[in-house]
């Protein structure tokens, strides 16, 4: 019995020492996330990639930050005498942007300390873990393009639909210059704001253009859902209506209202995740519309499905190193052997998340619309 008590005591002391070491290992250099509401001190991130949250809920019994931040079940916060619940993720998070929400006594809410971003079919809280290579999407003192909202008529859906259009720096100064166009699609649960807000596509373009690394082009981002699909029911998604919206309504509208090079050679399509699925299907169905294809964590092409179709000038396939990079490599090798101009990219130490796609766009953009 005494031996058993000693074992329990030793185990308890070891666990306490382990917890103490773990807490000592977390650097207390936390700073407010760059996505916080003005003047809000929380959430915070530190130099190691840990995130800390503080929520005022004096009448609540339980506050938890959503799954994906700190392991299974999320991060359970601890209530203080002042009514604030505070907690730190159990582990380091991937660099880059993350969605999250707060569950308070079973109810789902957004964190009032941070900005909201449309994802998971709702406006979610967002947090940014500084990336070691964040310079390529940083806001810098360089010439900036514009992102403008357009409403275009859609007879096929009997409504007006929305798109956001990025025009490069200098677009308004030369009335005679025309530009190629990339049609860039978001993922499931997101909308046409995602690539600008979460993806920083405009800043990536501005910085590449300032460094003379790309040929300037226009980017068009529109909502990719025409029949609303619930989570887990992607097989119910029908491409036909959106394909009509894109190829027969949006593209003619853009060509009529912006100075585009309105031909296949100067038109590309890309998408992340579900947007990659859309890109894959539409480019196979309408190869006469687009000359360059890009799937960002969004599937693969095979030589068999491209056979006997108008040959693309470029195929780009990417994913995170924590997704399935072997499949990307195998598909790339097969396409190269079949004579296609294909480029692959694997984002190191990321999964199905926006840093993967920011890096993918950064790699893709210099390849587009080259002779």
From TrEMBL:
Keywords (A to Z) from UniProt: Signal
Signal peptide span: 1-17
Keyword Metal-binding: no
Database matches in Pfam families: Esterase
InterPro entries: AB_hydrolase_fold (IPR029058), Esterase-like (IPR000801), Ig-like_fold (IPR013783), Ig_E-set (IPR014756), Mycobacterial_A85_antigen (IPR050583)
PANTHER family referenced in this protein's UniProt entry, alphabetically: DIACYLGLYCEROL ACYLTRANSFERASE_MYCOLYLTRANSFERASE AG85A, ENTEROCHELIN ESTERASE-RELATED
Protein name: Esterase
Organism per entry: Puia dinghuensis
């Amino acid at each position: 019995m005494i031996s058993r008590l000693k074992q329990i005591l030793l185990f308890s002391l070891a666990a306490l020492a382990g917890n103490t070491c773990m807490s000592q290992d977390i650097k207390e250099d936390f700073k407010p996330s760059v996505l916080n509401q003005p003047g809000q001190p929380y959430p915070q991130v530190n130099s190691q990639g840990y995130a800390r949250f503080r929520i005022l809920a004096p009448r609540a019994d339980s506050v938890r930050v959503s799954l994906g931040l700190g392991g299974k079940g999320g991060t359970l916060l601890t209530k203080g005498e002042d009514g604030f619940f505070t907690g730190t993720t159990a582990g380091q998070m991937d660099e880059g942007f993350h969605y999250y929400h707060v569950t308070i006594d079973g109810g789902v809410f957004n964190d009032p300390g941070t900005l909201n971003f449309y994802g998971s079919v709702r406006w979610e809280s967002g947090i940014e873990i500084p990336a070691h290579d964040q310079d390529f999407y940083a806001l810098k003192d360089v010439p900036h393009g514009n992102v403008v909202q357009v409403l275009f008529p859609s007879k096929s859906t009997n409504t007006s639909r929305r798109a956001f259009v990025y025009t490069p720096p200098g677009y308004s100064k030369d009335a005679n210059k025309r530009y190629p166009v990339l049609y860039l699609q978001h993922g499931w649960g997101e909308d046409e704001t995602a690539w600008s807000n979460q993806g920083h596509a405009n800043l990536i373009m501005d910085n590449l253009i300032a460094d003379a690394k790309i040929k300037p082009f226009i980017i068009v981002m529109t909502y990719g859902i025409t029949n609303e699909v619930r989570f887990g029911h992607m097989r119910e998604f029908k491409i036909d209506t959106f394909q009509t919206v894109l190829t027969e309504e949006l593209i003619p509208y853009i060509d009529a209202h912006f100075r585009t090079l309105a031909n296949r050679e100067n038109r590309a399509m890309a998408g992340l995740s579900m947007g990659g699925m859309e890109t894959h299907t539409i480019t196979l169905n309408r190869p006469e519309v687009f000359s360059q294809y890009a799937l960002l964590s969004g599937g693969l092409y095979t030589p068999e499905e491209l056979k006997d179709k108008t040959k693309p000038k470029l195929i780009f396939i990417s994913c995170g190193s924590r997704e399935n990079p072997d499949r990307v490599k195998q598909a790339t090798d097969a396409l190269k052997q079949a004579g296609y101009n294909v480029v692959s990219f694997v984002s190191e130490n990321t999964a199905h998340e926006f840093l993967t796609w920011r890096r993918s766009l950064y790699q893709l953009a210099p390849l587009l619309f080259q002779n």
